[in-house]
Amino acid sequence: MTRRQDDGADRDGDPKATAPDTDADDGGGRIRPRLRRLPTVRTAAVAALVLVVASAAVVSAPAAGVSVADSASVADSPATNAVTAQPSEPGGSADRHELSGSFSRPTYTAIAGDLVDIRYTASNTNGSAYLLIGGNRLTDSGKSIGYTDVVKLGGEFDGTINTRLLGTEEGTAASCRATDCDLEFVNENGKEVADSLSELSGATGAGGLARPLVPQRYRLAITNGTFVVEEPGVVTPVGAAASSDLLLTKPTFHDEIEVFTTADPENVEGSGGGESLSALEQNGLDRTAVTEGDRVVLGFESTGIWGALSHFAAEQGEGSLQAGQAVNHSVLSEFLRTEDGVSLEVRQTNPGMNEPRSELDLANADPEDVTLLLADAEELETGDSTPGRFYLVLDTSDGGPFTEDPEPGDEFTVEFALKGAEGHRYAFAEDSGEPPAPFEQRLPAPEQFPYWETTDGTVSAEASFSVQERYFEYDHVTDDGELLVEDSGGAVTGTTTILPPIEMSATFVDDKRDEPFRSESQVELSDGNFSINADLGGADPGTRLNYELYDGTTLRDSRTVIVVDDTDDPDRLAIDSVPENATVAEGGNLSALGIDVRNAGGLEGERTLALDVDDGNLTTARELTLSSNESRTVGFPSATIRLDPGEYPFTVTLDEDRRNGTLIVAENPARTTIDENDSEGDGSDTDGSANSSNTDENTTDADGNTTDAGENSSENDSTGATTPDGNSSDLDENSSDPARGSGGRDDGDEPATFLPFGIGTRETLLGTLLVGAVHLLGHWV
């Protein structure tokens, strides 16, 4: 009666099997084994049956599978574990003689859940050779495990064992549960108790595995197919020609997801429309912003999943999985749907209000929109022939693999997880004495990765990507969007989200020349930047051309190109020349100081022309606006010179252009300077010459009144002169206006004598003062 145990390892009894005696030599170097009576054990499993096999990805496995016939050889097969054996009674027969074989290694190491390749040789001259895969004891606990499998060597078996399926109803392709095998199961007396592997568990009361083959050391053996079954179910091979160990290790997980973006493979030259990882990497960019319509590539790294993936690939006719292979994405979709404890999600994180969330719909995706690529692991230890990474290539075009079409601005998160709940382990669903179904978990139970232990929880890797517009962004444009290109063989440059190897071109056309000009240049794309070498036909700054951008024959952009001297300073103004010496009149303005300026950029420019004379004694500035290619001579007519005659250094500045010269201030020929001490006699000058406007002394008129002529000098202040009647005459207030004359006189006065310009004798002094004042104002009447 079978006792099923939850941990899949504990069985009642001590499964210590007794190997056949090998003390009989037939004289030909071959060993004739004698059966010894096996001690009674209390195991309910088909333990002690077989020396073990199975694993997931052998670190030491061959680069390619080994095809093995009834008699096969491997070059590196050592002789140390090669044995020949002949059975003896009971259960033996003459046609099972001459069994020989060997393994290439004493230990094969692989990862539980992956594939393993076994290199061996086997020969049975009168029958078939079989590989026993199972174990009688776990090395760390001493507890027995159930049987696994018996594989017929040669024919369909190429040495590859899928450890995820080992001991289940799927098993290995050459398993004797699915293939006709000439097996004998007899008791100690030679009586047959079963004639096939499928009958073994019923005949012996043995159960199957409780869970997928766990990480542990197992044994492998090459035998002739005859087994002795002793109650209550201990099974041992009659003869073993060779043995080896299989060490299965715990799967590992890489907690990072690789993300990059790449162009549609249809645009990759030489790809023929197909995809390869190297082509995607060569024509992609290591960035998480994918351009709408391009493809985002997601890379995942893990072990313990490749046996299941290989199983579903075989079901869909994909064959064995190898690094560098492209596989239909439905293999991954079926794996994620079936294998409990493994999940992969790609979903939008920023849907708008009342908008549905976009998610990856792998199960319903078109093969043209999703590609599954396999690659060698980079961070993890895997077998030589088993991939360690897989890549999903997702198209972001409309109608692609997402539930909602991705749009610029959408953000997505990616999560790949191997799930685990502490205190739980994966277990096969209950069977009825038959081998378990490989992907049916015992319920109720949380989702659990098959190889996590009770102390393991969920491990996950996360990444993100976003969708952006397809655009060209130029480096040098005007506010109106016109392109700027330097006249000295410049280029149109900028950034773009468009990826190589898309072929694009640009044309430059000038129809205003005597002979119309046209040139064409290719667009160079590299690392998110673009460059167009512009052939402008020797155009001068300020010239305008028509620019058009083409994607193949499709027009993508059309603009005006303006030729400039410097794209970084396209409206620069410059000083052409400054006079070394400039002469101006004292008290005049600076219009005579002419500065030659020009537009040196190509675009209309506005700048300030600044002048500094004598280190800040005279400063002025002028705002300039010059159109393209305009030249002009400008001065400073609004600036009045308040410097004494002499020579003064000056500096003019326009942007970063700076020039120097000398300003010569000459005396004003229209001016006479009146010295305040310039008088004759005792101050009673009858012609008034002593009463100049610069005289600071007071003069006395005929009536004895004083007149302060100094108060009415060139400063023209408000102090007036005294009239002959003793009244003051304020020149500013025109109380005695020389332009009109006085016209009045006191009694007893002599008649006024009028001078030729209308001023009488009594008004001579006042007139003199007025004349001086008028002179000092710079106006003669």
Notes on the protein architecture:
The chain has 781 residues and is mainly beta. It has 5 domains: 229 residues, no CATH class; 211 residues, no CATH class; 93 residues, Immunoglobulin-like, CATH 2.60.40; 94 residues, Immunoglobulins (Immunoglobulin-like, Sandwich), CATH 2.60.40.10; 110 residues, no CATH class. 6% of the residues lie in helices and 34% in strands. The protein contains 5 helices and 46 strands. The strands form 12 sheets. It has an 8-stranded mixed beta sheet, with no helix packed on it. Strands 18-17-20-24-23-21 form a 6-stranded antiparallel beta sheet. The protein has a 5-stranded mixed beta sheet with strand order 5-16-13-8-9, with no helix packed on it. Helix 3 packs across helix 4.
